[in-house]
Design brief:
14% strand, alpha/beta, 5-stranded parallel sheet, 433 residues, 4-stranded antiparallel sheet, 14 helices
Length: 433
Amino acid sequence: MLLWILVLYAVISGIWWPRLHDYFVDRGITGGIQRGGNKLAAIALTGHMCDVTMGMVLIPVSRHSALASFFQLSVSTTLTLHMLSAYTLFILVLIHAFLYVSWVALINNLSADARKVLPVLNPTYLYHETWPGNGTSLGVWRASLIFTGLLVAVIMLIIFVTTLPKIRRKHFNLFYFTHLSSIFMVVIICLHASTMLYCTAPGLAMWCLDWSMRLHELKSVLYGEISTFGNGWYWRPGKTVQWTEKVASSFDEGINERKHHPAKMQGDERNLNTSVDIALRLEGPYFSPADPSRYHTVVCLVAGTGISGALAIAGAFSALQNSRTTAKSTLSSSISHESPWRRCVIVWSVRETDFVDLPPWDSHTDVEIQILLTGPGRPRPDLPAIMAKISQVTPSGAMIWTYISGPKGFLENAKTVCKAVSNIEYHAASWDI
C-alpha cells in the first residue's frame, strides 16, 4: 500500500515538476527575479499532491463501504488506508504552507516593482489579473486563495488533534462531529484549487453511494428493549440471546443521554430499571475474510466484552448443528451438512469483579465453554496450554480457526500463541488503530 502511494507521487512529480519549474523559474527571470522560482514550483507541486491525496482520503472506509465489499477488503485494511492517506495529506499541507511562508518572506524583501511579477496572494496569476492589481470581484476572488488555504489548514489541524488516540477514545463525539466538518472543508478546498474538484469527485461519488445504501437499510426500525443482566452487563432479549458490549458506566451522566459510539451506552447503572425500551436500526452484514464453517474446530479466545463476538459465532454453530439434525431427520443433503465444522469452544477470560453467569444455553448445548476468572490473587490465563490441549484432540490434518477479541495485550498474547501452532489460523477482531 505504501509502495503504491510512493509510486503515485513519483509519477506526479515526473509529470508536473518539469512544467511547473520551467513556468515559474522562467517567469521570475523574465521579471528580474533570480531566486524563489524553484520554491514556488515546489509549492505548486505539493498542492497537486494534496489534490490526489485528498481524493484517496475521501474513499469510503466504513464497514458499510460498497468498495470494501466489492474488493473483499477487511475493515482494518480500509481504515489503515484512510489513516495513512489522511496523515500523509496533513504532512503535505504543512509542507505546502511552510514553503509558501518562506517564499513570501523572500518576495517581501524585493522592490515593489519586483513583487508585481509574482503576486503574493496568488502567484499563479499576473499582477493585473488579481487584487490589488485588479479591483474587480474576479480579482478579489483570485486573491482569496491564501484565506481559503488558511481556513482549510485550521480545519485539518482540528481534525488531526481529535484523531489522537487519547482524545478519540475518551471523547468519541468530539472526534465524530469534528470529522463531519470535513464536508465543509472539501467545499472550501475546492474553492482554493479548482483541480481539487476533479480529484475528490470519485471519492465523493462513492461516499454518496454508500450513504444512500446506508440510509435505505436504516429506514427500518426494530423495536425492543435492553435489559440489565447484572454487574454492569446488558443484553437485548429475543428468541435467542443477543449480547451487546458491556456498558461503560458514567456516573455523572443520565441514562437518557445518547452517545454516538458503536455498541456502547452511557448511564448510571444504579438508576437503571430492569429494562429500557429502545428503537434499533441495524446495519450489516459486513464483509469479513473469516469463515468459521470451513474449519473442523473453532476456538474463541476472548476477554471481557469480547464474549459478544464469541456468542455470535456460537449462535452460527448452533444453527449449523440444527440444520444437520434436520437434514438427518429428513434424509436430505444440504450445504450446511457438508461443512467440516464439528466443534466450537469458547475460552472467556474475565475479571472476577466483572463476571456474570451466562444465561441458559437452550440452543447452544453443543458449545464448550471455559471461563477463566482473573484479578488480584488469580493467575493469568495459560493460553499456550489451552490451545495445545485443544490441538491434541483435533483430528490429524484438520484445521483450527481461532477468533480473538479483547484488550490489546490479550490480543497480542493470543496471536503469538496461535502463530506457534502449525494447524491454527486466526482472526483478531481489533479496532485499536
